[in-house]
Amino acid sequence: MLMWYIILAITIILTGSGLIYVGNRVSKFGFAEKFSRGSRTRRNLIGAVVVLLVFFILSLTLNLMNAVICLLHFMVLWLLCDFVFYVAQKIRKQPFKRYYAGGTAIILSIFALAAGWYLDHHVWTTSYVIESDKVSKNLRIILFADSHIGTTFDSKGFAGLLEQMQQQKPDIVVIAGDFVDDGTKRAEMLAACQALGKLKTAYGVYFAFGNHDKGYYSPELRGFTGSELIAELEKNNIKVLQDENVLIGKDFYIIGRKDMSELQRGSSRAKMKELLNGLDKNKMTIVLDHQPGDYDNQTAAEVDLVLSGHTHGGQLFPLNKVGEWIGANDLTYGFEQRRKSRFIVTSGLSNWAMKFKTGTKSEFVIIDILKKQKEKQAD
């Protein structure tokens, strides 16, 4: 909890700094000089009013968090442009007649945010191939996480994404948490669960909880509880795993973990080694663990494959690796192998509140697990 207070404090400080800095930069444009009639105080006031007005409009149309994201992108790129044009001015040994740094900063910021919007609202596929000598037949897994129904797409949009997944002919679909959000409405949750129930696979659809699925706030806010979500998922033949395992075919265990947030809720979750007790070590173990933060224990337990989400792929450049820097995440995005254990973290289908991804893109993941071919003996 302390970490979130620190992040909140840093965000407030950066937002205040951004408003002051960008307001000061806007005051350097010709229109501010014209209307200020030579008064520096009036010119600074004009810059501040313009920035505050734009920030207010963005807060109303997108929400406060996304207004802050837009502001911080403008601030960072403006700082960069000011520096570049300052160096250029020193080289040419004379000042520019117009405030080109500001115009360039605005154009770059608009392009960066437009790209971030596109990367967030369009979903790609990412593929991985993993070989194992524990399997007798191949398995195609579709993994997705962080759909946060109702943020960047509604249940109809989600159903369209499921059609794309179905086209990949998966043997199994796994959901690594944050299927719904704190703001997801009951009707949207019901429709999304029904869409999931229409998937056709050889081994079914499996779900592990994320930190938002049970909701941080009163159930009245969104109209359903975590228990009601479970009931609706199971009604649509989705297997919910909370520190449980199930055998898939002859070669695979799917192990769904309770999310780390259970510890904050005053509950508990089993340790990784406890979840492996009694399982056949000759079969492949595939773990669904929403937050990628238990890699040391999972490696020590010799889990074969761990699938996670939660990080949104780092979300925003240049803050992509903050979770790793502060020790909250073991991996932000992609694939990693530690001894016998392999790990995949997806950037997710959507976001919990932010509408931009300037450091990654939205995706679902295709994982082909192949029977390892025996190496040919040398002649």
Describe this structure in words.
This protein is an alpha/beta fold. It has 2 domains: 2-119, no CATH class; 124-371, 4-Layer Sandwich (Purple Acid Phosphatase, chain A, domain 2), CATH 3.60.21.10. Helices cover 42% and strands 18% of the residues. The chain has 12 helices and 12 strands. The strands form 2 sheets. A 6-stranded mixed β-sheet has the order 1-12-2-3-4-5. The chain has a 6-stranded mixed β-sheet with strand order 6-7-8-9-11-10. Strand 4 (205-208), helix 8 (226-235) and strand 5 form a beta-alpha-beta unit. Helix 1 (2-26) crosses helix 4 and helix 2 (30-36) packs across helix 3. The termini are far apart. The model has no long low-confidence stretch (mean pLDDT 92).
Outline of the structure:
The chain is an alpha/beta fold.
For this structure, what is the CATH class of the largest domain? Alpha Beta
The largest β sheet comes out as:
6 strands, mixed
Distance between the termini: 62 Å
- Overall mean confidence score, pLDDT: 92
**Beta-strand share of residues:** 15-25%
What sort of overall outline do the alpha carbons produce when their principal axes are compared? Answer: elongated
Question: What is the H/E order?
Answer: HHHHHEEHEHEHEEEHHEHEHEEE
Radius of gyration: 25 Å
Question: What is the CATH architecture term of the largest domain?
Answer: 4-Layer Sandwich
Quick tags:
379 residues; alpha/beta; 12 helices; 42% helix; 18% strand
